[in-house]
Amino acid sequence: MDINWSEVIKLYSYREILDLQSRSSMTEDEKLEKKNLEAMRYALSSKYKTTGREPTEPVVQENKTDSDAS
Where is this region: Disordered (predicted)? Predict the structure, then answer.
């Protein structure tokens, strides 16, 4: 039996995103984790795969704005 690891990662990432979205208040670390999971999900999506490029590590930089301070 062949295991399609891309599908496994995509499904696991999607489950993690849903879990994080269900929380009413998230810490800064959880917000960053959610952004990374969304980037990973996009990299594994069929739309991204059709470009012929290899998926890269998702990189999310923290953006400190006035709205984040509240």
Answer: 46-70
